[in-house]
# Entry
Amino acid sequence: MKIICVGRNYTEHIEELKNERPEDPVIFQKPDTSILLKKQPFFIPDFSNDVHYEVEVLIKIKKIGKHIQEKFAHKYYDEVGLGIDFTARDLQQKLKEKGLPWEKAKAFDGAAVVGNKWLDKSELSNVNNLSFSLQRNDEMVQQGNTSHMLWKIDELIAYISTYFTLKIGDVIFTGTPAGVGKVNPDDRLTGFLEDNKMFSIKVK
# Structure
């Protein structure tokens, strides 16, 4: 499986990082080795002093697809989850300034939290109107709703499949809302999707 991530998909997050609004979805990938193992804490890597949390709604692909038309995209997933795209912001900024790829800042070991719980989309009223949030030490730090995405889920599936064949088990990180921030040792990060607790991890 592969992890495909979407950057700059929420206007307020674009503005908080002072990025340029893209004309097309910003796409990057994480290897399967970036998935934080179940029941393991997230260890802040030695190469960064400024790792940020970014909570995101996840989509799990259920069948192989290439050049998927947007009107058929809903047939390629049933499960919706929640996760964190950890970013070494200081390293990412250095790489961006040099025009280099982001992988070292985004795809390091443990940089992708995939919640243990998945919700069947048939039980959700509307995937394009899902509320989600992240708490740090019981304080709300991020809140978002998929209705605020620049590109909706079906649009993303169609766009991504133009470049990459989607395979069973692939996970799409659909972007993060505003409110990203630095993690510190002993933080507890807990994610919620439509009032469902989707994950809780410790930072070390």
